[in-house]
TrEMBL record:
Gene3D superfamilies: Immunoglobulins. This is T9SS type A sorting domain-containing protein. InterPro entries: Ig-like_fold, Secre_tail. It comes from the Bacteria.
Length: 482
């Protein structure tokens, strides 16, 4: 008999625990209300007008987070006549001037829980303030100017710690709803996000896009970025305000292939304030938003080639250039460019891309200058788009007097430079990469310096090796026939 009584009691207490929630979040059936001197601290009608907030989540599909993305929000029309309440400058602390507070509880006892200040002070308008659960002093707020005041409170639950933050933003009219209409990934890997508004916005409304890369989210674990919206005309530098009801955002191109997550929102806070704010404050400083039904919008940006490193070393009067990729998707080739006369970049070689992430490459410059040599890579995609690596400078000590140019051959001739040579004979041998000798000639070399124009046989496109031997020295060059 006792077990039959204990079982229902156990189930009863289990239901209470589950219903109240195992997290710190506020019980959903005791919705948060905003009461104060502007409405005589009345809580009625309960749950049917402006004083009862609505629970919402921003950029999170499941759960009830305490990091600012779980929110209780409402908009109050403050007007001398015809509004929800009349204008008032609440000084806080009760008594003359009064104040306001957030409360929650059942209909019979709506003040069971309250969030206020621990001392007399004003809350920040168009900014974020911190309230204390179970504090002692009603909060002040200047609502003397008519308009629409949007209150957003972070659902931190019933914790006594001062971690419940709230945002209040004032606009002349009802905040406009913002909707993402489309997105476009540009050839430079930046992303255009196009949006529309359902009405002309107030002057106080700023429209923003908040984004994060690399698979992270908006929980506050990483720093997110916020950019401001523009007019729908890319040539128009004015922002998405005033009479404009369409516009766009431009997300900068990432440095690597990645997924960019984002959502759009409006706020009365400035861009500088938001980007300097905590991640929690960024999340709650929101009038209206579109977060793709809490799933966030995604833009997959795939760079044709993503370099891991590009380095070079000098050895035996040649410079070896080495690079490795993290990713290669629809990549075509690498052009090796060398800076001439500190002003002009010349292509000295081309290496085909393997289109396999993690591939390693090497190119030998057999004719470096004595002293500094500066190189960069031109990373070319199959559709012709390209970008450049950072430039690197390698020092070389060239003691022999043999040079060859050009190493990137468009005709059937090359030039061989003999410096500080003694008169005599020189051998010029052309071989394929497999070692097969394709041409071998003996030429006369004058005493001192000379430039010899050497004619090559008809060659197919590809890489070849030219070896020049004199009585004083021998040097090997790689040429690329285009």
């Amino acid at each position: 008999m006792k077990s039959k009584i204990l079982l229902p009691l156990l189930l009863f207490f289990l239901v209470i625990i589950v219903t109240k929630g195992t997290s710190q979040n506020i019980y959903s059936l005791e919705r948060v209300q905003i009461v104060g001197s502007f409405n005589g601290y009345t809580t009625t009608p309960y749950g049917t007008d402006y004083r009862t907030t609505t629970y919402r989540t921003v950029s999170v599909a499941t759960g009830n987070p305490t990091d600012g993305r779980g929110q209780w929000a409402t908009t109050i029309n403050v007007a001398a006549t015809g509004g929800d309440v009349q204008p008032v400058n609440m000084l806080g602390g009760g008594g003359a001037g009064g104040g306001f507070l957030f409360i929650s509880g059942p209909t019979a006892t709506p003040y069971n829980n309250k969030w206020v200040f621990n001392g007399v002070m004003q809350a920040t308008l168009d900014g974020v303030s911190t309230a204390v659960y179970g504090g002692t002093t009603d909060m002040g707020l200047n609502m003397a100017t008519a308009g629409y005041y949007t209150f957003v409170m972070n659902d931190y639950g019933y914790s006594a710690s001062p971690n419940t933050q709230f945002y209040v933003g004032r606009t002349d009219s009802v905040p406009a709803n913002i909707t993402v209409t489309s997105q476009k990934i540009n050839s430079d890997n930046s992303v255009f996000v196009f949006v529309s508004l359902d009405r002309k916005p107030s002057d106080q409304e700023n429209f923003y896009l908040r984004y994060v890369t690399g698979g992270s989210d908006f929980s506050g674990a990483v720093t997110t970025s916020i950019i401001k919206g523009q007019s729908s005309d890319p040539n128009d530098t004015t922002h998405l305000t005033g009479s404009k009801t369409t516009g766009y955002f431009k997300i900068p191109a990432p440095s690597t292939s990645t997924v960019v997550k984002y959502y759009v929102f409006s706020s009365t806070r400035s861009l500088i304030d938001l980007n300097n704010a905590s991640e929690l404050a960024k999340s709650i400083s929101v009038l209206r938003y579109d977060d793709n039904n809490h799933a966030n919008y995604n833009a997959s940006v795939v760079l044709p080639i993503n370099l891991q490193f590009f380095t070079g070393t000098s050895n035996n009067e040649a410079i070896s250039l080495n690079w490795k990729t993290n990713a290669e998707i629809n990549a075509n080739n690498f052009n090796i460019e060398k800076l001439a006369n500190n002003s002009t970049w010349n292509t000295i070689g081309t290496v085909a891309a393997q289109n396999i992430g993690g591939s390693s490459y090497t190119f030998i410059d057999n004719a470096p200058d004595n002293g500094s040599n500066t190189y960069r890579l031109k990373l070319v995609d199959k559709d012709g788009t390209s970008n450049y690596s950072a430039a690197i400078t390698i020092n070389a000590q060239v003691t022999s007097g043999l040079k060859l140019y050009p190493t990137l051959v468009n005709s059937n001739s090359i030039n061989i430079v003999f410096n500080e040579q003694k008169a005599g004979k020189a051998t010029i041998k052309l071989t394929a990469l497999n070692g097969k000798v394709l041409q071998q000639n003996t030429v006369n070399v004058n005493d001192g310096n000379m430039v010899l124009q050497h004619t090559l046989p008809l060659l197919t496109k590809g890489n070849y090796v030219v070896t020049v031997s004199t009585a004083k020295s021998q040097k090997t060059f790689t040429i690329v026939v285009q």
